[in-house]
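Q: Is it fine to ask for two folds in a single conversation?
A: Yes, each is treated on its own. Send the first.
Q: Here.
A: Result:
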Amino acid sequence: MEMISIEKELRENSYPGRGIIIGKSADGTKAVTAYFIMGRSVNSRNRIFVEEGDGIRTQAFDPALLTDPSLVIYAPVRVLGNKTIVTNGDQTDTIYEGMDSQMTFEQSLRSREFEPDGPNYTPRISGIMHIENGSYNYAMSILKSNNGSPDSCNRYTFAYENPAAGEGHFIHTYRCDGNPLPSFEGEPKLIGIPDDMEAFTDMLWSSLNEENKVSLFVRYIDIATGTYETKIVNKNQ
């Protein structure tokens, strides 16, 4: 698979929706993840990321403008021991509870499907990072409607063992803007992952569409020690 420029990819797509990046830093010492949200409606744009324990959750910036919390308020990131879970919805909790009961990532998601927001039927995208004894692997999942039909759920899981330094994968909910919004297609996209978290965060945030971007989370986890650094950027301040 050809590596693409994540900067170019984001700049040329006004509405990828919500996106997950997972990979390994160029020096091979950090497990890296990023998650961003975008919005077209007042309800979607009225959000910020806040830290909660080892993870984060979405929160209404102005509670008075919150009309429907069901698909916009959730914990995108939770940590279960040596596993970090990143998703675009409340399936974070489903994965956390399933894996805490000895289920696999894929098994945990069997009880879920795409979001019930017809006609878009937004895909549920999820990622899991596993760091243990200096080793690191990750997996990504997408649950999507069958070409826009809610009658079938198509399930895809992509697993990456011992990922190469400086490489990562990017998956997002929508192929591009539209009405209805077309779902992501194909495998997660191969991208480069730098060592500099500040520069990576700045590049991602500046590349997202100015009108539609809402919040960005970036985390670099030391593979040897499990310690991490986190950056959160919110358009609403």
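Q: Second one now.
A: Result:
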Amino acid sequence: MDRFDDGLTRVNTGYGRPRFSRLELRDILISVAVLAIAFALIYRSGSVMDYLGWRTGSETAAFACLLGLSALLVVVSFLFHEFGHKFTAQRAGLWSEYRMYPMGLVLSLVMSFLGFLFAAPGAVYIHGNMDARTNGRVSIAGPVVNIVLAGIGIAGCFATNHTPLVFVFIMLANLNAFLAVFNLLPIPPLDGSKVLTWNKAVWVCAMGAAALELVYLMGGFMPALYWA
């Protein structure tokens, strides 16, 4: 998700190039850490945890491994989504930085205890002269990253079936398909509302691809996945 904010006055040097401020890096690290914990809590009961417990022989060690795996998936899925927005905006010469939502981080943790993923810990804020076309291109960049990663996850499931790696790819596919569909909903301030305003055909294609991936994963169409 990205947010356009005319109230921001600070300007980074080096327009057109990927840049990070210290405040932004702090917010990114906190958001990744909280989401990794939330994601691990969601998967703390299930086949992934069972396998890790069998391999490590310790519930504590198994959860530590799950936490590390969750951190990797969060970086690849959530963070790359935000980077899609950020770098696209910076290439257009706009000020663009990620900021965390403290309340969103708290809700992520609370909802994870209930078994639900609430992935709205922050957003990329953008400042500068941006027309509808640029805003649409910046907004679609994040969901496109998730659509591609979900496809990689689905392909990885077939390639690694009957091995423990299949868990990693099914988690990658599920997380990214969900993030793509959620962010493409045409509800302000989600990405989908800005993409739909810019180009309806692009929105239909992106939402169609993301929805097909999610339905394929959640609708029982995936072949049975096994680990050795």
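Q: Anything structural to flag on that second result?
A: Two points. Confidence is low (pLDDT under 50) at residues 4-14. The radius of gyration is 18 Å.
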